[in-house]
């Protein structure tokens, strides 16, 4: 049974799927399809995603994602805040990669201001971003494996994730909503024992990844559920706006860290894993290799940071808050502090788009300034939002059980889809 | 700090300074205005030319559509600005296409024929700004409930909503 109404590559709406089912029933051939509602709280939909699926037996005929359940109007809220007050809001967009959100927003505003960020701050930003990537991929692996039925994986992944969250807590005081980056640099000097705890984590990580691969990669059930499922061609991936690991798993060699470097990524040597197969298995292998590459980047950053001293914030007293010591001894610093907190700081008028490679793909911040202390418009280009458009193409004509595997493999976060 | 003098403004200046740029070459005819600011190229095109402009940059190697969003310049006219971000995987460059719309006729042809990925983005702009996209296959609200009144990201819509 083929969908009657839907044009190619365009994700249908809920009412289209229902209308399509009615069309099938009304064709007089005795063919009947069923419309199934999945979510918005189904455990394998990774948040409040609602799918309306038209089924012919167990085969998916048409599929419509219904989103917006988590829409909190973050873009509107940003317009009412000072530039520096937007940073904590960005954590809450993609709550599995807070540091990446902080980075993208800070880089965008720094581009508007044309601020020079000290090398040490840039390296710490890269280091924490790669730990965020490992952390996010661990959540993906644990939940994806759990969806498929490999429940043990979840606990192993959470064990290592705990180590990363402890690092985040030590550095920012928060496990998930870190808000550690600031416009112009970092919020605080990294605490004592920071590098040691990261080194311990990085030393153990390759062995842990081997352990995950031992449990999954050769497992016949895992292979049977993943191989050949949810195939997406390179042309479809580009046409549907897919970015990040799903794009690279479809054979497009594109990584913003390497191809349009930001925050000093051009100094690091790493490989970009690519696969030509484009199925759920390819996305699994690409992400596993990415975790290993992230460990490599972290180790390089640690090497560069070794013995490095210097400021962690830019030399811009009218934009960066002074430290407490200075505030207590210098009149100027106190005045700047008072003015930044009460009036914010003006940002020269203009518009910028800054994209970074988040664990899920291209995360872009479009910030428009009208010269005042509050952003005129902040728009987030989130990877999950675009990747969700490819879900129908990947699932059409496949079994309903594969829908769960495909959702896991595209690793969507509903917080950033709905914003 | 940012120096406003570093920006290049106006079609003639930008197009002569960046004569080699593939997007500039592709849009010589269609561009109405241009700007090169903070290392970002912005080319303004007329509303009726947007699909042609997208096809032209696509042919010039800008293969990946990233994003379209709007900015509300209320109470100025033209009120709405649409920003299309398109990146080229081979050139490793980005171009921004800009379209200005009057509030009296806030509609612009859909570019889903050029890039199907514009589907959700245009639905989002329709939902939150109330801009119409004729030619879009299924233009319905995406974030807000279907029976919602108003368009939240417009500047005349209060942050707390209507009471």
Please explain how this structure is put together.
The complex is a heterodimer of chains A (419) and B (163). Chain A is mainly alpha-helical. Chain A has two domains: 14-66, no CATH class; 74-314 and 346-418, Cytochrome-c3 Hydrogenase, chain B, CATH 1.10.645. Chain A is built from 18 helices and eight strands. Chain A is globular. The model of chain A has no long low-confidence stretch (mean pLDDT 88). Chain B has a domain at 4-115: 2-Layer Sandwich (Beta Polymerase, domain 2), CATH 3.30.460. Chain B has four helices and six strands. Classes of the chains: A mainly alpha (419), B alpha+beta (163).
Q: What distinguishing features does this structure have?
A:
heterodimer, A: 419 residues, mainly alpha, Cytochrome-c3 Hydrogenase, chain B, 2 domains, 3-stranded antiparallel β-sheet, 18 helices, 8 strands, 11% strand, globular, B: 163 residues, alpha+beta, Beta Polymerase, domain 2, 4 helices, 26% strand
């Amino acid at each position: 049974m083929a969908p009657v109404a839907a044009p190619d590559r365009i994700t249908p709406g809920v009412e289209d799927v229902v209308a399509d089912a009615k069309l099938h029933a009304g064709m007089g051939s005795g063919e009947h399809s069923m419309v199934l509602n999945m979510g918005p709280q189904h455990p394998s939909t990774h948040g409040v995603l609602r799918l309306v699926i038209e089924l012919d037996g167990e085969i998916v005929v048409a599929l419509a994602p219904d989103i917006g359940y988590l829409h909190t109007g973050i873009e509107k809220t940003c317009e009412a805040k000072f530039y520096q007050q937007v940073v904590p809001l960005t954590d809450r967009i993609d709550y599995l990669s807070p540091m990446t959100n902080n980075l993208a927003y800070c880089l965008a505003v720094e581009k508007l201001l044309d601020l020079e960020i000290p090398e040490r701050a840039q390296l710490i930003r890269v280091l924490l971003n790669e730990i965020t990537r490992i952390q996010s991929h661990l959540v993906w692996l644990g939940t994806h494996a759990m969806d498929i039925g490999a429940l043990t994986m979840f606990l192993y992944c959470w064990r290592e994730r705990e180590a990363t969250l402890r690092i985040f807590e030590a550095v920012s005081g928060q496990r998930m909503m870190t808000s550690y980056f600031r416009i112009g640099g970092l919020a605080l000097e990294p605490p004592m024992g920071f590098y040691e705890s990261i080194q311990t984590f990085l030393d153990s990580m390759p062995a842990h990844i081997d352990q995950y691969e031992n449990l999954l990669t050769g497992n016949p059930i895992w292979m049977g559920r993943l191989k050949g499922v949810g195939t997406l061609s390179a042309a479809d991936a580009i046409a549907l706006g897919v970015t990040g690991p799903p794009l690279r798993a479809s054979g497009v060699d594109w990584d913003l860290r390497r191809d349009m470097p930001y925050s000093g990524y051009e100094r690091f040597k790493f490989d970009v894993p690519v696969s030509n197969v484009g199925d759920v298995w390819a996305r699994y292998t690409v992400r596993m290799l990415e975790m290993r590459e992230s460990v490599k980047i972290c180790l390089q950053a640690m090497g560069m940071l070794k013995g490095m001293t210097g400021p962690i914030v830019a030399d811009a007293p009218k934009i960066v808050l002074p430290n407490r010591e200075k505030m207590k001894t210098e009149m100027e610093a106190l005045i700047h502090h008072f003015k930044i907190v009460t009036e914010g700081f003006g940002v020269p008028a203009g518009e910028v788009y800054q994209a970074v490679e988040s664990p899920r793909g291209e995360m872009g911040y479009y910030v428009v300034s009208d010269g005042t202390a509050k952003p005129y418009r902040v728009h987030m280009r989130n990877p999950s939002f675009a990747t969700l458009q490819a879900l129908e193409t990947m699932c059409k004509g496949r079994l309903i059980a594969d829908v769960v595997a495909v959702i896991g493999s595209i690793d969507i976060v509903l917080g950033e889809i709905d914003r | 700090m940012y120096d406003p003098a570093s920006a290049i403004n106006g079609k003639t200046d930008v197009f002569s300074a960046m004569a080699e740029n593939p997007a500039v070459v592709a849009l010589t005819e269609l561009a109405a205005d241009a700007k090169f600011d903070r290392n970002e190229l912005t080319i303004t095109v007329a509303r009726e030319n947007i699909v042609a402009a997208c096809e032209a940059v696509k042919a010039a190697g800008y293969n990946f559509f990233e994003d379209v969003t709007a900015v509300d310049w209320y109470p100025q006219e033209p009120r709405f600005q649409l920003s299309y971000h398109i990146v080229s995987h081979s050139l490793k460059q980005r171009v921004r296409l800009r379209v200005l719309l009057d509030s009296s006729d806030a509609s612009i042809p859909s570019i889903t024929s050029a890039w199907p990925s514009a589907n959700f983005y245009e639905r989002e702009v329709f939902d939150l700004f109330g801009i119409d996209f004729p030619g879009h296959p299924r233009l319905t609200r995406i974030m807000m409930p279907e029976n919602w009144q108003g368009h939240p990201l417009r500047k005349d819509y209060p942050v707390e909503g209507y009471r």
